[in-house]
Amino acid sequence: MLAGEFPMLFRGAKWTTEKILDRLTTRRVRTLELYNTSAGDDLLLELAGTGSLTALDVSSAHITDVGVQVIVRQCKLKSLMFRDAVGVTDRSMVDISGCKTLRELYLEGTSVSDDGIGHIGRLPELWSLDISRTAVTDIGLERIASDRIRLISFNDSQITGRGFSSWSVPDKFSLYTRRSQLDDEGFAVACRSFPFLWNLAIEDVPLTNKGLFSLAGQQPPSMRINGSRIDRDGVLWIIENLPVQLLETDTRQFSQADAKLYENYQGRYLKILPWDHSETDQ
């Protein structure tokens, strides 16, 4: 949620459209969070009439393209976040692409695919995009062809990274992915498209040391590589060649003893966190 916004939050099936509207009667809502409520498109239709919403965060299967169409056309949204909203499909992407004020767009767990995602490349202010648990692949990534987005998340996806070939971002860029298909070739493409990779979380992906070396010359201050195929030699390469200050690995890649030995390597601040993720991943 955008800084400075104080949300009205409703959680649970007890909150119907009628009950939420009753609570909002005397308020001009700017930020609204709906988590697993019983409210549907009818709520968005009512709220769109006020034109006051700037941020909407929804986790609900009751919201569909119908509600999205109205809310993005009548409100000056800066942040639009969906989670597990399977009723939001490629049809909504055309309408969302007309919301020129939008800065954050999260589509996690929606039914968006390669067919529609390319439309969001038109958004002039968009800096943060989450396409986790969608059907978007490298084909869709390539259609976005962004030079503005500064942060992307694509967890639990089939994305390899090759679709970044059409992107070109000359500023700091953060990349977060877990359980995707990001591989050596795709990561090399990403490194070429994003010469200033900043915060990197590449967890549980098939990336190996070979792909890691594509980072040569970059200066990420923070990296998470646990669950990747990067081994101890790769971790040592990171320590010796990149100015990383915080590095998270798993204990198969780097031991606690290793971490202690290389802490504050050659006088520079460096914190290495080798964690056993086997329990948290279950």
From TrEMBL:
GO biological process: one example: SCF-dependent proteasomal ubiquitin-dependent protein catabolic process
Q: Which GO terms describe its cellular component?
A: SCF ubiquitin ligase complex
Family matches, as SUPFAM superfamilies: RNI-like (SSF52047)
Put simply, this protein is called Leucine Rich repeats (2 copies)
What organism does the record attribute this protein to? Planctopirus ephydatiae
Its lineage opens with: Bacteria, Pseudomonadati, Planctomycetota, Planctomycetia, Planctomycetales
